[in-house]
Amino acid sequence: MDTLIPPEENRRMFDLVARRYDLLNTLLSLGLARRWRRKAVEILAPQNDQRYLDAGCGTGDVALELLRQAPGAAVVGLDPALAMLDLAAAKAARSDLSDRAVFQPGDITALDFPDCSFAGVITAFCFRNVADRRKALAEINRVLTPGGRLVILELTVPSGRFLRCGHRVYSRLVPLLGCAFSRGSAYRYLVDSIQNFPRPPEIVALLDQAGFRQPRHVPLTGGVVTVFVAET
Ligand SMILES: C[S@@+](CC[C@H](N)C(=O)[O-])C[C@H]1O[C@@H](n2cnc3c(N)ncnc32)[C@H](O)[C@@H]1O
Predict the structure, then answer these.
(1) Whose CA is nearest to atom 1 of ligand 1?
(2) In the predicted model, is pLDDT for residue 1 greater than 50?
(3) CA of 53 to the centre of ligand 1 (A)
(4) Which long-range contacts (CB under 8 A, 24 or more apart) does 197-202 make?
(5) What pTM, to 2 d.p., does this model score?
(6) Which of 61-65, 166-170, 228-232 has the lowest mean pLDDT?
(7) Residue 176 within a domain
(8) Domain tally for the chain?
(9) Residue 45, SS3?
(10) CB of 130 closer than 6 A to ligand 1?
């Protein structure tokens, strides 16, 4: 069953959960989300004096981590959910990073940037929600400079039997926690969207078909999340 929901509904859902997003994210990932984002940014390997795109930036944690690792870089955070963007901008202001981090509305499948605008593109926990993934990859390919890197961090189903079992049990608890702290239906959707996300080799094949070089994947925490990496 395809669980993908139309972009407008998707935007509304993230606007609704925005205020509780960071809390739930930390709780549901048992505090690991921060480490996963840090690792994904390390794999992106941002350089000072270069410009990066964080597509589906949400409340801005990846963009701000990028600036922690490369304080001389610049980052554009893009997201259709305005409530998420407001929180991201407030975080950047609190960290005195507003001059290097710009947050703006936009869609990963229709990037409003000229060709070759970014040295790297990163997207964390967003790609799963995108209905037209081929279009998104074509757009990312277009805005990357030659030799630029794409990093996709995504929740996946672990391949080992033991972890997969634990994952299944945990998945039953997620909507209950979601109900207690935020919008339950959004967290039901979260579980379904992870189950229905293509397995890592399929995403690697998609990257290859989209013209990226050396697509590969790196499982983290036994494959509970996966980092996909490729170059233009
Ligand atoms: C689960 S959140 C992840 C946010 C953030 N990257 C993080 O690490 O916490 C997914 C985000 O992707 C955004 N999103 C969904 N569809 C999108 C699209 N087509 N283009 C860009 N962003 C999208 C949502 O609005 C939401 O803020």
Answers:
(1) 125
(2) no
(3) 13
(4) 197/128, 197/154, 197/155, 197/156, 197/157, 199/156, 199/157, 200/156, 200/226, 200/228
(5) 0.94
(6) 166-170
(7) yes
(8) 1
(9) coil
(10) yes
What is the domain-level CATH number for residue 23?
Answer: 3.40.50.150
Domain that holds residue 208: 7-231
Q: What is the pLDDT of residues 173-196, one digit of tens each?
A: 777 776 766 665 777 778 888 888
Burial 64-100 (b: 16+ CB within 10 A, else e): bbbbeebeebbbbbbbbbebbbebbbebbeeeebeeb
Q: Is residue 129 part of a domain?
A: yes
User: Is residue 194 a part of any domain in this protein?
Assistant: yes
Cβ atoms of 56 and 154 within 8 Å: the answer is: no
- 36 Cβ below 6 A of ligand 1: no
Q: For ligand 1, is residue 124 a contact (CB within 6 Å)?
A: yes
Of 46, 49, 25, 24, the closest CA to residue 36 belongs to: 25
- Which candidate, 153, 182, 183, 146, places its Cα nearest to that of 57? 153
Our answer on whether the CB atom of 154 is closer than 6 Å to any ligand 1 atom is: no
Q: How far is the CA of 115 from the centre of ligand 1 (A)?
A: 22
Residue 1 located in a structural domain = no
CB of 125 shorter than 6 A to ligand 1: yes
- Dihedral sign for Cα atoms in the order 136, 196, 230, 79: positive
